[in-house]
Design goal:
Elements (H helix, E strand, L loop, with lengths): L4 H4 L3 H22 L1 H10 L20 H6 L13 E6 L9 E5 H17 L7 E4 L7 H13 L2 E3 L6 H10 L4 E4 L1 H13 L11 E5 L5 H11 L2 E8 L4 E7 L7 E3 L4 E6 L13 E7 L10 E7 L1 E2 L11 E2 L4 E2 L4 E3 L2 E3 L1 H9 L4 E12 L2 E10 L1 H5 L3 H20 L4 E5 L14 E3 L4
Helix pairs in contact: 2-3, 5-6, 7-8, 8-9, 10-12
This protein binds 5'-O-[hydroxy(phenylacetyl)phosphoryl]adenosine (DLL).
């Protein structure tokens, strides 16, 4: 089944002609309405009229996360705030997070693309969908919610966490589909088992998992534990949120990028050169229909490759392979994106904490864990009430990480000069997770 048969199966030449027309429109629009783009196009020596073929997209400069931060909060919006009906933001402290806006039509498009995802997963209006992505500034909760409503399915707006209640609703309301991060799906399976619930005999038949990298092996484990068909969904707030691309249940190999709304390229992250289809590199997205927050050649930092062969599901849209990693140091801890620099910014704001730290990322059962090892100043240890002071510092770090970054951490305070020092580029992160 295909939600929007007309647009999802357009013959490639027709699709590319549509992309071309929409690209020209968006390039004109941003050049004339967003100061940042006028400047960056001028610096690159390219005018909107120079974009005459799809290949000309390569002449346009990239946009980076740093550009978004530099224009925080609304500097890249292409419409007045009176036309913006929704804001979302990535995790992070004020000034570091990225803020995205949507017009009514943008929300409408997003809802349709999410509805396409559900239909690609084999769902219909007769399904009951438990949405365990977080509601709030994160795009997961509301993005999924609006799409499920557009489809006409029954949504359980459960949001993240509260595992016992999730399991109770899985039993009592009988959802046929669940949406959450893959690691949370594993956690649910384990907790359910521990509560004596037969997780394989629930009504669930489909799981839609994304927001963090996962593997074929994890797919197998989740499918066995929950007795579902597990499908991969991809998206990023900057480009829209969940629903930029989605696996089809027929093939389950690669996620169809909704190319009537986005142009996807893969580049060499070092040189910025566009790579031929099939080669691994960094995904770059251009939005061609967004009104409030159009993005030109946005460097996602996600590493993947494109699959150009036609898919047997009938969709003509190109597929992207699983995201295998990132070309920067962003960590994804239980679905929350965080940069080590953000953790550092929190640490340096705390008295008696030195800027020498290590981050140990691991996985306990299905859940990501993050241990922050950090040096405290020598004076603390000579203090007669050292134990109490140390406890307070530890508590403060845990609280600030939760409040500012939305992550829960374990803290290990160590004496000055006990963590190694770096002569070259510091590598403060030890990621022990096996993807
Ligand atoms: O994670 C949007 C989303 C919500 C996608 C729910 C899917 C389901 P951000 O918080 O902006 O948005 O994080 C985007 O998460 O650049 C990838 O690094 C990672 N990511 C998202 N989906 C996948 C996936 C949402 N299926 C960042 N596989 C992206 C691997 C993913 N990584």
């Amino acid at each position: 089944m295909i939600y929007n048969e007309e647009f999802e199966t357009l013959p490639r030449e027709v699709l590319e002609a549509l992309q071309m027309k929409r690209l020209q429109q968006v390039v004109q629009k941003v050049y004339h309405t967003v100061g940042f783009y006028k400047k960056s196009f001028d610096e690159a020596g390219v005018k909107p009229d120079d974009i005459r073929t799809l290949a000309d997209i390569e002449r346009l400069p990239f946009t980076t996360k740093q550009d978004l931060r530099d224009n925080y909060p609304f500097g890249l919006f292409a419409v007045p705030m009176s036309s913006v009906v929704r804001l979302h933001a990535s995790s992070g402290m004020t000034g570091r997070s990225t803020v995205v806006g949507y017009t009514k039509r943008d929300i409408d498009t997003w809802s349709e693309l999410m509805a396409r995802c559900f239909v690609a997963a084999g769902l219909t209006k007769n399904d009951i969908i438990q949405n365990a992505y977080g509601y709030g500034l994160f795009t997961g909760g509301l993005g999924i919610h609006y799409g499920a409503e557009r489809l006409g399915a029954s949504v359980i707006p459960m949001s993240g966490g509260n595992t016992k209640r999730q399991i109770m609703l899985l039993q009592d309301f009988g959802p046929t589909a669940i949406c959450c991060t893959p690691s949370y799906a594993l956690h649910l399976a384990e907790q359910g088992q521990a509560m004596g619930v037969d997780m394989g005999s629930l009504k669930l038949r489909v799981g839609i998992f994304g927001a963090e990298p996962w593997t074929e092996k994890m797919r197998q484990v989740i499918e066995d534990a929950l007795n579902v068909t597990a499908l991969n969904i991809y998206g990023l707030s900057e480009v829209m949120g969940p629903g930029v691309s989605m696996e089809c249940v027929e093939e389950r190999r690669g996620m169809h990028v909704f190319e009537d709304h986005f142009i996807v390229e893969v580049i060499d992250p070092q040189t910025g050169k566009v790579l031929p289809k099939g080669e691994q590199g960094e995904l770059v997205f251009t939005t061609i229909t967004k009104e409030a927050f159009p993005l030109i050649r946005y460097r996602s930092r996600d590493i993947s490759s494109l699959i150009a062969e036609p898919c047997r599901c009938g969709r003509s849209h190109i597929r992207m392979d699983r995201v295998t990693g990132r070309s920067d140091d962003m960590l994804i801890i239980r679905g929350v994106n965080v940069f080590p620099s953000q953790i550092e910014a929190v640490l340096v704001g705390i008295e008696d904490v030195e800027p020498h730290y290590r981050l140990i990322v691991d996985r306990e059962g299905p859940l990501d864990t993050l241990e922050v090892q950090v040096e405290v100043s020598g004076s603390v240890f000579s203090d007669s009430g050292a134990v109490k002071v140390l406890q307070n510092i530890e508590r403060r770090i845990v609280r600030d990480m939760r409040d500012y970054l939305g992550i829960s951490v374990r803290v290990k305070l160590v004496e000055p000069k006990t963590l190694g020092r770096f002569e070259d580029k510091a590598s403060r992160v030890l990621d022990k997770r096996q993807r």
